[in-house]
Structure formats: structure tokens, C-alpha cells
Amino acid sequence: MENKTLLNWLFETKAIRVSPEKKPFWYTSGTIGPYYINTHFLYGSEEKANDLLEKIDFHKNDKLSCPGILLKMIKTNYKSDFIFKGLIDSMVDYIKKNIKMEAVDYISGGERRDWFFSLIAAEMLDKPHIMIFKDLTAVLTEKGITKEMPRINGAGVLHIADLITEASSYERAWIPAVRSFGGNIAWSVVVIDRKQGGEELLSSNGVKSFAMAYIDNSLFMEALEMKLINQSQFDMLSDYAKNPKECMKQFLKEYPEFMENSLKADAKTAERARLCIEKRFYE
Length: 283
Prior knowledge:
- The chain has helices at 3-12, 46-59, 66-80, 82-98, 115-124, 168-180, 198-204, 217-225, 231-242, 244-254, 257-263, 267-279, and strands at residues 16-18, 25-26, 32-33, 35-37, 106-110, 129-132, 138-142, 145-148, 156-164, 184-193, 208-214.
- It has 283 residues and is of the alpha/beta class.
């Protein structure tokens, strides 16, 4: 799949949202930045993605029935949604071209957004699927049958995820979970790598990292050329990519009214602004 096609889909589904100039987004952490990434919106839309998340939350407590129920929903969407089908087809082709499938014994995905992609990719690649939960338990689905996770001593596992930032979820949960059953995550494939140290962390854990797209200056330049963003947005994205903290620190110096207005805004925005001040992120 060409980068332009994926870029169009990312913006069309609002999987990537770029802020207007001088109006960066507030993040949950209390920091600010010029873009949001919600890769799971590639399921077709924000509405569809949020609906599937609700379904996951409803069914995930029944771990043995959850994979089958979710896979059925995901396959229905795959058949009807052009963007999601295109993405999954491209992901499967990408995996076949970059990883020797005979070396892959299992495909895993972690709670929750990884499952949007890992469940159906595992079926299309004819590999058993390991559904990993946040409590580090897991279930195995093979040929439509789900059972408690067995020992898989020495097995090679490919983990499929929506994106990586610092790969903290891998280090905290997915890698230890698979190791606890005797397996080894040897490969990772994500839709987007935010280029914030995740690939390096995975490498230090013996995991070969692959991504269908990287958030970097070349992607922003392509988005500018395709008129998906304007020059002012590109300039802020470019500066942010070089040094996120310094970029936003300089922004707050130049536009002090941004913080003042944020403190007077809706409850969620005001809470994040207060957190920013309390944590002294940009001092």
C-alpha cells in the first residue's frame, strides 16, 4: 500500500487529527501537542471504533467467549468497510513480505485496541491467536476454538498492535505475559510507530519491530503536499517532532493566553491545564 493511501485513510477517519495553529491539543498527561493519533479509528470511523470498544468492555470478562464474539463482529465490518478491509489486507501482505511466516507459531494482541487488528490478521494468516489481557492472563484461539492458555515452550510469537510510542505496554505486560507461558515475542507489527523510543526498547528486549507508517517529518511533508495540512500546521508538527518539550515550552511563552484560557475552559481542559502547572512540565 502506498503511503498516500494510508495517509488519506488516517485523515479521513480522523485517526490522525492535527490541531489548528496556536491551538495545540491537551493530552491526558497534562502536556500539550499538535496532533492526536487514534489508530483504531481506521476501523472505519470514530463512531465504529468506539462502538467496538464498548463491545469489548462488555464481553472481555468472559475470556473464553470473548475472542469468538469479537472476531465475528470484526469480520462483518471487514466485509462492509472499504478502509478497514484495505488496511487489514495491506497489513497481511506487509507481514508476509517482511516476516518468514514459517517461523511464526502464534500471533498475539493485547487488551484492547490491538484486538481490532490482531484477531482477524491471525485468522487470515492461519495462525493461532493469543488474546492477552491487562492482568497478564491470556486465552488461545485456534481453528475457532478458544481455551485457557497452554504452555508454548520456545514458540515464536508475532505481536500485532495499533501503534507504539515508548512501547511501555510491551515491557510492562505483553512480553512478560507471553514469557510466562514459555513463549517469546520475536516480532512486532504496528500500524503506526510514533518514533518516541519504542523500536529501541523492543530491540533491547529481543523484538524485531515493524511499522506500516512512521510519525516523522517525511510523513508531515507528504501530508502538506497532499494538502491534508497547511504550512502553519506543518511548521508546528516539524518543530514538535524535533523536540516536543522545547517546542511546547516556547509556544506557551509566545502565547501565555493559551494557558489562561485553558484554565477557564471546560472541566476536562481546566483539569489538564492545572496538572500541567502542578507538574511543571514546561518550566
